[in-house]
Every structure is written in C-alpha cells, then in structure tokens.
Amino acid sequence: MTIRPSNIRLALFLLAAWLTLTPRPAEAQSCDGTKPVATAAEGVTQVRALNRAGCLGGPACDSPICRRLKPLLDGAPNRQQISDALRAVLEEARTVAEIGRDRESLLAQMGLSLAQFVDNRVAAAAAWTLEGLALFADEPHEIDLESRLENCSDSASCTLMSAHAQRVIELATLFRRTLVKADEGIRGAFSKQLELLDKRWRAYLGSSRGQYPWELAVNSALYRKTAQFDAPPTSQWIFAHPGAAFELSRSSNDRQPSESLLLEVAGLYRWSWKEEKMRQRWGGSVTMAWRDAGEGRQKLGYGALAYLPRASTIGYVWRPQDGNDEHSVVLSADIVKFLRGTDGIRERFMGASDSK
Fold first, then answer.
1. For 150-206, what is each residue's pLDDT tens digit?
2. Which pairs with CB-CB distance under 8 Å and at least 24 residues apart come from 97-104?
3. Structural domain ending residue among the three candidates 141, 166, 182
4. Residue 354 buriedness (CB in 10 A; 0-12 / 13-18 / 19+)
5. Both 103 and 50 in a single domain?
6. Residue 19 Cα to chain centre, angstroms
7. 299: how many CB neighbours lie within 10 A of its CB?
8. Strand partners, 335
9. Is residue 23 part of a domain?
10. 94 is in which domain, residue-wise?
C-alpha cells in the first residue's frame, strides 16, 4: 500500500485542527485559603476564581464546616442529618463579622428559608443563588459583595474584604446545597419534627409552673441550649416563690378556710414528654406560710407542697403553738401564672433577653 503525500498532509491538518479546537484543562485553583491582595480588582478576581473552582462551599471546599458537612452532601442524608447541617450553617453564620449588616442579612434569609421549608415543604433554595457576586438581589437584605470589595483602599482592607466575601459565599452555598439535598420525604419529616417541638414549647409554657424573673434566670442558665431546634426542658426549679393559699385547720373554731401567704423556699417540678404532651408530672417544694391565727397564736408555719395539674397545689403546714400545735391542709393556685405572661420566656431560654 502506497502512502501518498496528500494523505499525510491531510492527516497532519486534521491533527492540528483537533489540538487547536480541543479545550485545554484549566489550571487547578488552590483552595488553601485567602492570599493577600493588593487592590480591589485582585480581590474580586480571587473570589471569583475560588468560587468557580468549588472552593467556597462547593465540592472542593476544605474548610472545617465543609469537612463536617461533606458526608451529608456526598451521601443520602436522613432527617436528623439535614437538621444538624442546617443548624451547623446557621450557627456558623452567627459568627460572621459584621460588615455592612451582612450577618443580619444572612440570618434573616436563613430564617425565611427555614419557615418556607417547614410551611410549604419546599427547598426555597432559589434565593441562595449567587448572581455575579451578589446574594438576594433586589431584596431588602441584598448582599453586594463586589461593592464591598470595590470600597477597599489598601492591601490590608482588600485582603480582609476578600476573606469576608469568601466566607459569606461559602455559607450561602452550603445552605443552598443542604436545602437542595433534602428531598420531599426528608422535608416532610423535618417539618413534623419542628412542628412537634413547637407544640411541646406551647405545652411547656401552658402547663409548667409560673416563674418569677429570678426563677426564670436560674432555669434559663441551667437549660442545655444547643441551637435553634431545641426541645423544652423536662424539669423546673422553684426558688423563693411567693403565692397565696387557703388553709383549713383542724384546730380552727369555725372550720372555715382562712387566707394565708406562702413562700416556696425551694422546690422541683419534673415531667417527661410523650409526643407533644407532658406526662408523669410530679414535684413539690418546702414552704413557709403566714396567716392570722388569732390573738397570741403563732402566725408562721412550715410545711411542704405537692404540685397538681393546672397550676394548683396541695400541701401540709405545721404551726407550733404552746401546748396545742396547729396542723393545716393548704390549697393554692400559682398566681404568677396569671400575673406574668409567657411572652419572652421561650426566647429567654433560647438565649435572647427577656422581653418582659
């Protein structure tokens, strides 16, 4: 077989065309963190390059939060894993430096997305799409990272703004990827979990003992808060808790109930949860009681109370007298339950300041 020169030229031409038209692999982008930049333009270029390479919350991300979520985002997560991931990103967003109110914007949009996630059973991931270097475009909480970078004036400030932009994009990307990862079954189960927690909080606020400010401070401090999706407590400490009661004494002449003032010195109320209901409730306190027992008789008594449903109590009071001690049955209602509303109690437990 004779190879003609024209055939050789044609083969060489086709080879050259193939080499010219075939895309060359892009130079690998290192994800080893922020490098110093001298100008705003360099900062923008750096952020865009890292984002294109998947370093900012994408598959190539290697930050601690990315390593923590990688098994979930690479696998088939269950309801608890989705919940843990959303909570982890939410907590990480709370530590973002306050630049142009970006932290508030992130947290506000996360709250809106979670509400939509629960109420409508949808992922609500569209709002987290990065358009250019802007998040939530045309929304009240827009974050324009390119404008932030363009406002830097020297190497130090431009490097700082580049790092800030990278962190915001990373968290937004992780939040979107987690929402997208949750399929309909996961979203439905997660929604039911949050609805159950909300019902339990309502039951707790309605059925627990009333709390004075100092009691609320103690119980809030002892509450083991982890994040936004926490269940209400299973116990409540009573401390220096004043109240009112009726006493019925065997030694009373007319056998009619008499009014008295109580001070529950210390007590404990405990229960367990079954679905959204408080079960196996028990508790009591050591108390002191004052009442007008008559001329020359001791007014101060000592005793104990047992807690009943619907914020009521029953107890026993012993009042020492000269030669004829007085023994009384005490019935009382938890008046602080009616005087002090529940507004702000849940927020106080979750770490916010009490609004009342």
1. 888 888 888 888 889 888 999 989 988 888 777 655 666 677 778 888 888 888 887
2. 97/164, 99/148, 99/161, 99/164, 100/143, 100/148, 102/143, 102/148, 102/164, 102/168, 104/141
3. 182
4. middle
5. yes
6. 55
7. 13
8. none
9. no
10. 28-182
**Are residue 153 and residue 290 in the same domain, yes or no?**
no
Q: Report how far apart, in Å, the C-alpha atoms of 331 and of each of 191, 206, 259, 325 are.
A: 42, 20, 10, 20
Q: Say if residue 222's pLDDT is above 70.
A: yes
Considering the domain architecture, whether residues 262 and 131 belong to the same structural domain is answered as no
Residue 354 domain flag: no
Residue 63 contacts residue 186 (beta carbons within 8 Å): no
pTM equals 0.48
Tokens 């008789």 identify what position? 297
Written as six digits, the tokens of 282 are 């028990």
| Residue 78 identity (one-letter amino acid) | N
Q: Residues with Cβ < 8 Å from 43, sequence gap 6 or more?
A: 37, 149, 152, 158, 159, 161, 162, 165
Q: How many domains does the chain have?
A: 2
Asked if 234 and 273 touch (Cβ cutoff 8 Å), the reply is yes
Structure-token pair, residue 271: 């229960």
Residues 305, 214 share a domain: yes
Q: Are both 320 and 177 inside the same structural domain?
A: no
Local confidence band at 266 (pLDDT 50, 70, 90 cut-offs): very high
CA–CA distance, 301 with 60 (Å, rounded to integer): 71
Report d(CA 301, CA 328) in Å as an integer.
9
Residue pair 329/247 in contact (Cβ under 8 Å)? The answer is yes
Strand partners, 316: 304, 329
* Final residue in a domain of this structure, among 182, 216, 241: 182
Mean pLDDT for 260-282 is 87
Please check whether residue 88 lies inside any domain of the structure.
yes
Which residues partner with 171 through β-bridges? none
- 212 and 114 both lie in a single domain: no
Beta bridge partners of 292: none
**Are 54 and 107 members of one domain?**
yes
Give me the chain's average pLDDT, please. 78
Residues 60 and 145 in one domain: yes
